[in-house]
Amino acid sequence: MAISDWPASERPREKLLELGPSALSPAELLAIFLRVGIKGKTAVDLARDLLQHFGSLSGLAHASIHDISQIAGMGTAKAVQLHAAIELARRALAETMGERDNLTSPQAVKDWLRLRLSHLQHEVFMVLLLNTQNQLIHQAELFRGTLTQASVYPREVVKLALQHNAAAAIFAHNHPSGTATPSTSDLNLTQKLKDALSLVDIRVLDHFIIAPGQSPYSFVENGLFNCQ
Asked: What whole-number distance in Å separates Cα of residue 82 and Cα of residue 76?
């Protein structure tokens, strides 16, 4: 039975208009985006297939365009559109979470970093600069690729921190296909950056490693350095 033959109160679009988006299931919300299904399946059925195949909304959000396009009824065009919609939602949430007063707790920083880094397929090194109240004043992506001691230049980090009159910094990078544990290079680079920033009285509060499906790894929480 086509969705158009369903009672109006059960059709995703009409249900959203009447009750708001929070009243819909993930499959119903996804069906509104998909608009149409395929022969023998409604858009809701197709949405359920996607969620079942990737395990969850989070799994779907982290899936590649290629993997999504392989699902019957999707294809590259729909997969690209879905990726764009997910990225818009991710950026909107990151903007809200990244407002100055919202990153003043370790958990808030972890949540923000997971949102920004956990879905990336390439390695990224970021620095978050904070004022004397530990409020975020600037964030920058300094490097993409395989992280080594030579990947990030301490003088560039110091220059950026002084430019924004930062009192403290937080480092973060992701391990796209690995575990959220530091390598020897990670440890050496962190110490090198700490030493450089200490010369201009800027504290390093923590370094986080983000990996898909894992809790962020905190250098401080694991006793790897003293941020005081």
From this structure: 10
What's the CA gap between 98 and 137, in Å, rounded?
9
| C-beta pairs of 191-194 under 8 Å, 24+ apart in sequence | 191/225, 192/149, 192/154, 193/152, 193/154, 193/157, 193/169, 194/225
pLDDT digits (tens, 9 = 90+) for 34-70: 888 788 888 888 899 899 888 887 778 878 888 888 8
d(CA 207, CA 118): 15
Full-model pTM: 0.65
Q: What is the β-pairing status of strands 136-144 and 124-130? A: antiparallel
